[in-house]
Amino acid sequence: MGSYIPNNLQERDQMLQAIGLKTLGELYAQIPDEIKVKKLHLPEGMSEPEVGRYISEIADKNVRFRTIFRGAGAYNHYIPSIVKSITGKEEFVTAYTPYQAEISQGILQTIFEFQTEICQLTGMDVANASMYDAASAAAESVTMCLERKRTKMLVSATVDPMTLRTMRTYCHGKGTELVVVPAKDGVTDIEALEGMLDDAVAGVYIRQPNYYGLIEDADTIGGKVHAAGAKYVMGVNPIALGIMKTPAEYGADIVIGEAQPLGLPLSFGGPYLGFMACTTAMMRKLPGRIVGETVDVDGRRAFVLTLQAREQHIRREKASSNVCSNQALCAMTATVYMAAMGPVGMRRVATLCLSKAHYAASGIRKIPGFGLRYEGEFFHEFLTECPGNVADVMSALEKEGILGGYPVDGGILWCVTEMNTKEEIDRLVSVLRAMHGRQ
Prior knowledge:
The protein is α/β, with parallel strands linked by helices. The chain has helices at about 10-20, 50-60, 80-85, 90-95, 105-120, 135-145, 160-175, 190-195, 220-225, 245-250, 310-315, 330-365, 390-400, 420-439, and strands at about 65-70, 125, 150-155, 175-180, 185, 185-190, 200-210, 230-235, 255-260, 275-280, 290-295, 300-310, 380-385, 400-405, 405-410, 410-415.
């Protein structure tokens, strides 16, 4: 997918005016001011090596934590060395999707293998070549659900807030009504959902496990959604699928998720990788591209772009989706990770996450004021109360070299993965207990 750079300031201003903006700064209005760098105050007359050293000194002020108890969408997992060994090869790192796709059989094969492994992981019939992230995949799922008389999307209040905001943005642009289903005790209020299902509902989106780490009653929800004639969309954590029922077993029509846990490092927030899969009945509504397997004129195994709507490129106003690229290198990374781990390895990682998270929760909840906010079953994230100022707790943990959980509604959303040792968990509990003793 190409990019366009304005030739002059007048052209830039015309482009801004066309989208209703006055300055370039307005494009970044969603980024908090406190993390924006207004200007690098460089001393005058510095040579290139001097500038490099100066910038490195500034960068060294960044804090990097070896002990992490935070998730909320980005997770710290072990990455086998073979993953970087393979994906770091020059022929993969420098490759770009050719405009005549079939000329690069290697790229198409890696995409095909990614699609295959996502289908095996989720139990779905078909997967696309990948999405930019989970939020954009969730937003694209709305369009897949829409029908002539069904133009409303229901979304559980227990999904990731940033995903919900992205879905709202897409729905606003398409004129689609998005309605939030309330939560009850940290999970989707099924009774409220049932009362909201009418003939105008095209689909229902929930996350499993949800944003608070809790396990939703996905079987019951799916049954009620299908009984109302709507499509069932599930967002999932790929690591959790190592031990949980697949979306297919829950009856999902579409499944989306963030594949960052599959071999991609935290990397200060990206690039990440969205995956998307569906049933055969929904296949022709999948956005982006699908790579298929065939044979060439000599009968040899070959790969082709089986489905890709050209409207995405040449008639954008008529396209159901404008996604016309994919995260090929990130998708390949996830492919190598899943192949290296295999079903046994994936199950082992998921089991470790589950057991360690419950061990941590059992210790934290015993500290006065840090009780679990919700008592439901959870995977590797859980939300606790906080007896004081959350910022003070985070600051105290940072002094001990610990990145604490994510602040959520006055509480703390903790995450524990296979990377957290028993000693680290015990140390976390000890610091929290000592803080309580000083209050």
